[in-house]
């Protein structure tokens, strides 16, 4: 008499493998670059790849709900610990400070808060084309997450120029694009051609 135990075990194994195949895997990472409206609606942040090999992620404030102070002047980065940056406008400053990719396909690093001049640990990723997840932590203990929404329109007063170009945001010096070093040997100057038709050949 043939035992049915091996057959039952094989059937169970096939069933487990089928269920595992039906389970959704980890969500594929979506493009984290673009323009995003923060969860509180106070700012729009433009994210783009940066760094020498464009593998990091930088972000800039390109629109603010209240870009002016009570005197009608541009709000300044007055709480920045770097005295050289305290006179710069908050509109256009760099907020995401060159986040590096991690093993999970997310970006980690520091986020700068112009409201108090402090920087915090942050992780940024996107699982849906319309949303950017932002998780910030202070002292690696107090953490909070936000969902920023992708925007494709242009709000009044929004910076539209390229980074470090006219009408665009400004990168911190360490993340500003560096001109490519050519190192090419200049070509010798070409001798001017004499006027008139070329001399006939013999």
Automatic annotation (TrEMBL):
Organism annotation: Methylobacterium nodulans (strain LMG 21967 / CNCM I-2342 / ORS 2060)
Keyword rRNA-binding applies: no
UniProt keyword Glycoprotein, yes or no: no
Keywords: Signal
InterPro entries: DUF2147 (IPR019223)
Domain DUF2147 stretches: 34-150
UniProt lineage: Bacteria, Pseudomonadati, Pseudomonadota, Alphaproteobacteria, Hyphomicrobiales
Compositional bias per record (Low complexity), positions renumbered to this chain: 176-188
Name listed for the protein in its UniProt record: DUF2147 domain-containing protein
Signal sequence segment: 1-29
């Amino acid at each position: 008499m043939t035992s049915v135990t091996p057959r039952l075990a094989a059937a169970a194994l096939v069933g487990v493998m089928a269920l595992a195949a039906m389970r959704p895997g980890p969500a594929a990472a979506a493009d984290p670059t673009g323009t995003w409206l923060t969860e509180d609606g106070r700012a729009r942040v433009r994210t783009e790849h940066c760094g020498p090999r464009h593998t990091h992620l930088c972000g800039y404030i390109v629109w603010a709900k209240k870009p002016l102070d009570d005197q009608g002047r541009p709000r300044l980065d007055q709480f920045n610990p770097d005295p050289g940056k305290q006179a710069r406008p908050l509109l256009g400053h760099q907020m995401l400070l060159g986040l590096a990719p991690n093993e999970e396909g997310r970006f980690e690093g520091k986020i700068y808060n112009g409201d108090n001049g402090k920087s915090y640990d942050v992780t940024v990723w996107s699982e849906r084309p319309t949303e950017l997840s932002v998780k910030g932590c202070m002292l690696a203990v107090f953490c909070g997450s936000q969902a920023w929404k992708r925007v494709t329109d242009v709000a009044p007063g929004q910076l539209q120029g390229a980074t470090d170009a006219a009408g665009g945001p400004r990168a911190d010096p360490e993340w500003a694009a560096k001109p490519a070093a050519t190192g090419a040997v200049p070509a010798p100057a070409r001798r001017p051609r004499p006027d008139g038709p070329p001399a006939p050949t013999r």
